[in-house]
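Query structure, 625 tokens:
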């Protein structure tokens, strides 16, 4: 879905970030801004600030920052489109769709209405099952034997679907309503003898676990038998509101704990999630009877930068971990952590904690296998590294795994380790995995006057090889641009992938630049949220008729930056530039803090912190390219 940039700009201008954040965080006026305890990490003194003039929030403790849309994405775990729709609904705005016909828009509106209706139907069933739980001593006794308290059962909204084929008929007088089938609550079948349609409840005599999306809406259920009958677990089918390949049980309930604990523990069943919450680990979630998918991993990384997958230590657990590895690799950036926890075959998380204690389990989690080691183990499985054939087999196994990793220090270190294991150099292994095109397909190198036979950097080489060539020195040395803001924006437009390598403080600093640069950076951030890194040519198309189009074209005209140097060199150059900008920004904040100290003595401490930070930056050596 393409949302016009003009609408996003209008939405941000209408929305009040203080109002949006204030619904979740207790804010107190402090000078020109509002302060409060950061909702993204545990802290005792407020370091979270919201600016009504710049319409931005920023935490000086954890670095989280953004506008009203960004807050909904970070706090509620929504994706970009979901956050825009949610915010637009709050302000009574209709989200337009650039590429949608009137018929498509009508269908989309009908689909949204149906999803809301299905969620209402599911919530009504959940309410009925919660009432049944209270009146079923057998179900209550089962939960008590599993060590679950009434408080935990209430927190997760557990219920009980009683025995009987049509007990939901007492909840929904119109038991023939098609919505009951579409929501997955009722199953239909045709009697072979009479040809008549039969209807009956999907869930019978089961403990019921409501499955909620990140907004807290009920989208499905999981049901567990009270004995050893089969199937032991039963989930809702795929519906317009529920897809088990995208949803995670317990994510809504765990969303705050993920930030407080600093990691998410991914388990194999919803009973594990509830039991772990009971035992002091409220940061657990579970997949819903399916292997962990890239969509699952992407959703988890909206809430935390550290994911620990928990599996049984048997062969089945190893196979499940291998699938989770495939899902995690595309998102394993240098600032994220992915680990794999293998429990003894005779234990699940619940039984392990009950036998060895909470601290022992915490140590076990901290010692989990990091993604890098698990990748290497997976690649060399079944390979005899004492033979050339075994090492070649390892190289073949490792190639698809390594290729899935995003570029960064982790990927390059693993390349070196894998090359060492197969007894090749890193360059030789890269050439083996990405051979250059045939000579007939190569572009002849162009020659410029005064350069002799020297090939321009990157010409005639595969893009995959350009990062391994040494850039040709620029004649006459580096020419400084007329303005730091101009140069920073130019670097980002030419190398948008560098954005992900910057800290939250850097993002906030860039987005808060004065006009005309700040609005252009905000637009760029929204593009990266929705589409990921893009080349300048793609960004150029997105900027057409945008207010920042003229500035962007002016900055990029004849710059030669878009692709002329690699991202790592750009990152270093931008880092040095931002440090200089940040020093000036901190000086301004110091002045504001001194002024605020006239009426607020606590502002002196903030002044000292800002001063110490500035001196640290000024003392830091400039990193060379």
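Result returned for the query:
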């Amino acid at each position: 879905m393409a949302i016009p940039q003009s609408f996003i700009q209008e939405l941000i201008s209408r929305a009040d970030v203080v109002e949006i954040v204030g619904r979740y965080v207790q804010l107190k006026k402090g000078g020109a801004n509002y302060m409060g305890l950061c909702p993204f990490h545990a802290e005792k003194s407020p370091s979270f600030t919201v600016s009504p003039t710049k319409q931005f929030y920023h935490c000086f403790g954890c670095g989280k920052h953004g506008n009203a849309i960004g807050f909904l994405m970070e706090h509620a775990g929504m994706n970009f489109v979901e956050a825009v729709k949610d915010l637009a609904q709050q302000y009574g705005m209709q989200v337009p769709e650039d590429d949608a016909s009137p018929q498509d828009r009508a269908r989309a509106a009908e689909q949204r209405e149906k999803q809301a209706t299905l969620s209402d139907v599911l919530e009504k069933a959940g309410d009925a099952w919660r009432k049944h739980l209270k009146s079923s001593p057998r179900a209550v006794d089962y939960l008590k034997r599993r060590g679950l308290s009434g408080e935990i059962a209430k927190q997760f909204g557990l219920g009980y679907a009683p025995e009987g084929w049509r007990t939901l008929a007492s909840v929904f007088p119109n038991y023939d309503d098609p919505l009951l089938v579409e929501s997955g609550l009722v199953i239909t079948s045709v009697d072979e003898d009479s040809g008549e349609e039969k209807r009956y409840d999907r869930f019978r005599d089961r403990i019921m676990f409501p499955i909620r999306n990140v907004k807290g809406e009920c989208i499905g259920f999981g049901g567990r038998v009270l004995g050893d009958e089969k199937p032991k677990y039963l989930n809702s089918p795929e519906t317009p509101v529920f897809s088990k390949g995208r949803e995670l049980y317990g994510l809504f309930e765990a969303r705050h704990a993920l930030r407080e604990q600093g990691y998410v523990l991914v388990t194999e069943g919803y009973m594990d999630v509830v039991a772990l919450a009971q035992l002091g680990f409220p940061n657990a979630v579970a997949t819903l009877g399916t292997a962990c998918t890239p969509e699952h991993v992407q959703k988890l990384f909206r809430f935390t930068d550290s994911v620990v997958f928990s599996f049984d230590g048997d062969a089945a657990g190893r196979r499940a971990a291998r699938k989770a590895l495939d899902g995690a690799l595309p998102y394993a950036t240098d600032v994220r952590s992915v680990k794999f926890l293998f429990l003894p075959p005779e234990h699940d998380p619940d039984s392990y904690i009950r036998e060895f204690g909470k601290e022992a389990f915490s140590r076990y989690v901290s010692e989990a296998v990091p993604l890098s080691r698990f990748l290497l183990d997976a690649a060399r499985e079944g390979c005899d590294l004492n033979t050339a054939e075994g090492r070649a087999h390892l190289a073949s196994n490792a190639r698809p795994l390594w290729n899935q990793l995003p570029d960064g220090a982790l990927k390059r270190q693993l390349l070196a380790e894998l090359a060492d294991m197969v007894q090749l150099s890193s360059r030789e292994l890269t050439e083996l995995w990405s051979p250059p095109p045939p000579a007939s397909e190569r572009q002849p190198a162009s020659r410029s006057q005064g350069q002799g036979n020297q090939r321009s950097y990157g010409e005639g080489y595969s893009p995959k090889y350009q990062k391994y060539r040494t850039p040709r020195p620029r004649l006459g040395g580096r020419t400084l641009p007329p303005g730091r803001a101009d140069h920073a924006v130019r670097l980002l437009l030419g190398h948008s992938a560098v954005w992900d390598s910057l800290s939250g403080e850097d993002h906030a600093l860039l987005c808060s630049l004065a006009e005309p640069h700040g609005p252009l950076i905000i637009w760029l951030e929204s593009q990266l949220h929705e589409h990921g890194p893009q080349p300048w040519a793609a960004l150029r198309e997105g900027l057409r008729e945008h207010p920042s189009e003229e500035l962007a074209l002016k900055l990029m005209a004849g710059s030669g930056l878009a692709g002329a140097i690699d991202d790592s060199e750009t990152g270093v150059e931008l880092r040095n530039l931002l440090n200089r900008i940040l020093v000036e920004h901190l000086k301004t904040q110091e002045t504001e803090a001194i002024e605020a100290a006239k009426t607020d003595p606590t502002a002196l401490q903030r002044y000292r912190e800002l001063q110490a930070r500035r001196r640290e930056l000024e003392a830091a050596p400039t990193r060379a390219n």
